[in-house]
Design brief:
By secondary structure, the protein is an alpha/beta fold. Helix content is 46%, strand content 20%. The protein has 17 helices and ten strands. The strands form two sheets. Strands 1, 2, 3, 4 and 5 form a five-stranded mixed β-sheet that branches. Strands 8-7-6-9-10 form a five-stranded mixed β-sheet, sandwiched between helices. A hairpin with an 8-residue loop joins strand 4 (62-75) and strand 5. Helix 2 (101-114) crosses helix 17 and helix 5 packs parallel to helix 7. It is elongated, with a radius of gyration of 31 Å.
Length: 424
């Protein structure tokens, strides 16, 4: 009976009380031997009892409270400076925790593994939101931070940012940086900001021996993250993510289309304007255009692009895409260098010249993909997992809560250790 209700063999059930459809209360006390004084060793005397009510797992479909009659002991030696103390048993509940130990470990699993919301569990247990959240953070922090084997040697490291929160009356955006093991698709940690300072400090903390084993460093076209990798893992090959390189080409193409639209029509795109009508066709891969689609695109460009700026940017975007149509590293570097130089011609639109400068600035990182064949794709996948956690929580304001819950869900903790950890 004791094991069924409480999960502990050495407690005594004093009684069970609860009306129909009401909270069920189970009254228990410890069956341990009388302790000795920690200072003088004399057997303690019972001073009084304090009833502590703990939120427990539902029993028989009803919210349950475990009422623990804790003993307060006092030293029998009058000259002893210890005085009195209250018994503790972490198997029943951790110190200063309102949830019982088994309930706290269960909510940590539900929030961390299944990405359930804190509010959902608080309603199920019929308790306060903070009661559940405090337990998740205490047990979750121990699970992700106290396990030295959660991650080991990392061969490919990725950095990327995610919007953490909008704060203040002006909804100022605050970001976080995700540090990801690209090979395993594992979130290693989350640090505040996207300037690179906190990511540098995190890598410094890992030690030189760990950093020297990183062979590849993947990133989008972010200068702060490039500085982090150059400073902390100088021997790692930096690889620019192909998706973001092609995305840059599409972004410059769209920027050019909107500029020409305003110059020729004097307003933003209307549904009848030629350049607005072809905006989707411009971003589509050329080889995926049907014959009718290609004719439509060229016709709309002739009608709405009098100087050929948008057509030039469309060809530039396709040239960037062609970079990934082969696997020759040497050809890739020459391709980027030549394309970057060609796009900076004075007769080309300003967007093309800007794209060319960026390609030249990142030429080694762009061409490195043909050697490493690693990308920031797993990092983006981890970002999606974090965004799912944010949706379940309806956003965060506490970075500590955000970090722990993200690591529980995307950091691949060893859930077998949940039953053995000591909460923080």
């Amino acid at each position: 009976m004791c094991e069924l209700l409480v999960g502990l063999p050495d407690v005594r059930i004093l009684g069970v009380h609860g009306k129909t459809n009401d909270v069920l209360r189970i009254y228990v006390e410890s069956k341990g031997e009388r302790p000795g004084c920690s200072n003088c060793g004399v057997l303690a005397q019972l001073k009084d009892r304090a009833a502590v009510e703990l939120v427990d797992l539902p029993c028989l479909g009803r919210p349950t409270r475990l009422v623990w009659h804790k003993c307060r002991w006092k030293c029998a030696e009058a000259a002893c400076p210890v005085g009195s103390w209250t018994e503790e048993d972490s198997r029943i509940a951790a110190p200063r925790m309102v949830l019982s130990d088994r309930a706290a470990r269960w909510v940590t699993l539900q929030v961390g593994y299944y990405a359930r919301s804190i509010n959902d569990l608080a309603l199920e247990l019929d308790c306060d939101w903070h009661t559940v959240n405090d337990a998740v953070i205490a047990y979750g922090t121990a699970l992700v931070d106290d396990d030295p084997k959660r991650f080991g040697v990392v061969r490919a490291l990725g950095l990327d940012e995610v919007l953490f929160a909008r704060v203040g009356s002006f909804h100022r955006q605050e970001f976080s940086t995700q540090i990801v093991d690209v090979a395993r698709g594992q979130l290693l940690d989350v640090v505040p900001g996207r300037s690179g300072a906190h990511a540098t400090a995190w890598l410094e903390k890992q030690g030189k021996e760990w950093r020297d084993k990183v062979r590849y460093a993947t990133l989008d076209l972010s200068s702060p993250y490039r500085k982090v990798f150059t400073t902390m893992v100088p021997d790692a090959m930096q690889v620019a993510d192909p998706f973001h390189v092609v995305k840059l080409g599409n972004a410059k193409l769209d920027e050019c289309r909107r500029r020409v639209q305003n110059e020729t029509m004097g307003h933003r795109g209307h549904k009848s304007d030629p350049l607005y009508r072809c905006r989707r066709l411009l971003t589509k891969a050329e080889e995926r255009l049907s014959e009718a689609g290609r004719e439509k695109l060229l016709g709309l460009l002739r009608a709405g692009d009098p100087h050929g700026d948008v057509a030039t940017m469309w060809q530039a975007k396709e040239a960037v895409r062609e970079l990934y149509a082969h696997g020759d590293p040497g050809l890739a570097l020459r391709w980027v260098e030549q394309l970057g130089a060609d796009l900076q011609d004075a007769d080309y639109p300003i967007e093309a010249r800007s794209l060319g400068r960026t390609l030249i600035r990142w030429k080694h990182q762009i061409a490195a993909w043909h050697k490493a064949h690693v990308s920031n794709g797993p990092t983006e996948a981890v970002n999606n997992l974090i965004k799912r956690v944010k949706r379940a929580a309806f956003g965060f304001t506490s970075f500590r809560n955000y970090r722990v819950r993200s690591l529980l869900y995307a950091g691949k903790p060893n859930w077998d250790l949940l039953s053995t950890i000591t909460p923080r």
